[in-house]
Amino acid sequence: MPVKRPRKLGAMLLTCVALGGMSMTGCGSTESGEPREQVVDESPALRRSELHYLNKTDRFAMGEGEVVAHRPFRAVTFQVTAPESSRFEYQLRAPGGEWGSWQPVPFTWREGEMGSGEVVLANEADAVRVRASEGAEFVRLELFAKAQVIHDDDEGLGIYESPDSIHQSISIAGRWAPPADVLNAGSSQYMPYEGPPAVCAGGLLPGTREIGDWIRQHFPQATSYGGYACRANTANPNVLSIHAAGRALDVFVPLTGGAADNTKGDPIGNHLIKNARYMGVLYIIWDQAQWSGSASGTKMSAYTGPNPHTDHLHIEFSTAAARDRATQFFKDGKPPPGVAGLNPAHNHPSAVSMAAGTQQVYIRGPGNSLWVKGWNGSVWGSWLDLGGQLTSAPSATSPAPDVTHVYVRGTDNQLHVKGFSNNTWGGWLSLGGNMTSSPTAVSDTLNTNHIYARGTDNAVWVKGWANNTWGQWVSIGGTMPD
């Protein structure tokens, strides 16, 4: 059963001010100074919060940046990427008045280069300065008009409807729409949802942190990540927020022209969907859309919470991934995108003999294609690339002399076979199914094959071949864990 999520308040407004040569991603200029489409504030009086980015320009690299708000604010959140030893301070200006004293940024979580913090002000301010003793790669500031930080992805959170609430209003064309191959891969993976914790974890769990670092390494467009906060659920104060579990990441991809940068954010979300079971991904929010591993069908739907998540992906992980680091992703050594599962412990070879004194060994090799190497009784041949796109280890049989069938799981999670006979390799043939494991094939009599695999229900399924005819998939029960 998918988890119900909050209703939509409206798309987030980016408001930016160019300051003394400092560039702000998502404003009217890029870091190189080239013009961008201006963000039009249709109704300044209806704005809930403002987003500002301070990038590593020459000025901020020396340690200080300044933001002037479009209207007074009463709360600030900080998200930083900086050397761990860099000390952060902030300074506030009263509306039309003097600057106050420098104060340390009150981080609620900081590990390595990443840090998150927030402060609720006793009085209104209209500008903020931030300085870092050793500079910073990236600083994100969100300024709230009310003396309250509005957390936007707690289950059940509705529209913020206080009489003097300030809403965000800006149009954003479209939403995150993964391509068909991503949706198909995601629809075959059931990931049971895990609710909020009983106690705060004390920080991001080890696996969560490692995945955050992995995303930053392989998707450098992600400028920062955070996600830990020991707090109650905004919609239901009787339970803790999922952010208190240490299993949730907020991965930041700054706005472009006031809208989500889909060329940078979509590849991250798409990869996580395709590898949800492999990595332990339960739930994603990005650019007005959500993917829920516990839902049915494509698992995609519009996200209607109060924040459209246009400058960050909210990602939730299983306990097996976040705490135990027990998913196959960790067992394989956290491989880069495109080569998942090449660790020998997971990608075991399959060997077969078509004739006395000969051997052939098959592996999932470079490019995730099928590779074979043969022994003719006296010498090994060269490795040969047989093509295909494998998402599992291969399994080979020899149902007749000088005949080989090699079975694999494809990118569509279906069973595929490639055959060799009369000294010729045939093409790839899809045999259907919806597999969540590598296949295992056996030939028990002449011209017969039986292929076994785990289905989406974690039961064992079998498909048989005899007399050149394929039977149907049949469940033989059982429960196979990951």
Describe the structure using short key phrases.
482 residues, mainly beta, Neuraminidase, 7-stranded antiparallel sheet, 6-stranded antiparallel sheet, 26 strands, 10% helix, disordered N terminus
Quick recap of the structure?
The chain has helices at 58-61, 180-187, 206-218, 262-274, 276-279, 319-322, 328-331, and strands at 49-55, 64-81, 88-93, 103-104, 107-111, 114-132, 138-144, 224-226, 248-252, 281-286, 289-292, 300-302, 312-317, 350-352, 359-364, 370-375, 384-387, 395-400, 403-409, 415-421, 424-430, 440-442, 448-454, 460-466, 469-470, 474-477. With 482 residues, it is mostly beta strands.
Number of domains: 2
Shape, per Cα inertia axes = elongated
Number of helices: 7
Give the strand content.
25-35%
Estimated helix fraction: 10-25%
For the terminal residues, how far apart are their CA atoms?
21 Å
- Radius of gyration from the alpha-carbon trace, in angstroms: 27 Å
Instruction: Please give the number of β-strands.
Output: 26
The major β-sheet equals: 7 strands, antiparallel
Mean pLDDT rating:
80
Q: Give the oligomer, counting copies of the same chain as homo and different chains as hetero.
A: single chain
* Parts with pLDDT < 50 across at least 5 consecutive residues: 1-47, 154-172, 340-346
What structural class do the secondary elements suggest? mainly beta
